[in-house]
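To: structure desk
From: M.T.
Subject: fold request, one chain
Message: Could you run this one when you get a chance? Sequence is below, nothing fancy, just the single chain.
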Amino acid sequence: MLIDGFIIYQKYKKGFHKIKFHKTFTFYPNSSCIFSTYLKQKPMIRFLLVIAVALTVSCNSAQNATSKTKMTPVDYANTITAENLKTHLYTFAGDEMEGRGTGENGNNKAAEYLRNMYMDGGIAAPIEENNYYQNIPSEYFNDATKGKPSQNVVAFIKGSEKPEEIIVISAHYDHLGTRDGKIYNGADDDGSGTISILEVAKAFQKAANEGNGPKRSILILHVTGEELGLYGSKYYTENPLFPLRNTIVNLNVDMIGRIGSEKKGNDNYIYLIGSDKLSQGLHDLSENVNKKYTNLELDYKYNDDDDPNRFYYRSDHYNFAKNDIPVIFYFNGTHADYHKETDTPEKIEYELMAKRAQLIFLTAWEIANQEERITADKL
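Reply: Done. Structure tokens follow.
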């Protein structure tokens, strides 16, 4: 580009073009250009040159300031949006997935969907490159799948300082399949948890890509066979990809997309189960993160040892708790569409689901980055 004797020369990988016919040039660090001109020019040309150089320095300063701005945990949490959750869930809990019955074609389609999302997002498989499946043989299911195998789906964000310490974030991606010609979509149970931890993984990966990754490792675990009897999580804890002694916490997400029957009119709550069963440190951290960031009502009704529903024993976190690993189970409670063909994506409260997923991300962030390791301090 030539403007009245003011020439911009592009910077090349191996340096700058040598300018033999100019008497002098000025190089501005971090600039992509050399501004070169004759010293002896008309006053107006010199004036225009000064303005151009000033603008360049100002631009560079602004760029440097921007590049040095470090995103906060809240910034990463805010990448988990209602819009993204909705887009994924309408596919994941759509009729094409055929209710995601364990071992069935729809369940395999759902596993492939998750695998592709992780591959496309540059999120690694934990053990072998591009192998996101932990295969479970058919005989493990005790004929519950009519001789069909299934698979857990796993993804991994490696910790930057303590990679051997693992935080498992889990959700079951199976549901009830089809019955009497009706598709049980399972949008809330547990499409909501599945898609939420997918978005949590993407937020952690974004942080890692920008040099702000978690100090401890994050294992995303989508388990199969939950509806048949917690088979996928049982298989994982019996065949862990990483030693259970280094698995410090399990955050389990099962139904966080709706408002439960007992909470009608309340769009700012989540039930927590198990947070204080094994670790007071985990419970206190969870409370503090919520107070600092999300201010959801944390309801512990179903955490009661005498809860007749026995929800503590009915989702995948329990197989970790049995192995003395501290857990939190995130849950919205049951509703009229629970385990019915009417549990469909249009009934999900996406803004509330996003806020709950952000709480889970921020809790995992704090566990991953605090100096002290969470322990089962109540054993």
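Reply (cont.): The chain is about 35% helix and 20% strand. Let me know if you need anything else for the meeting.
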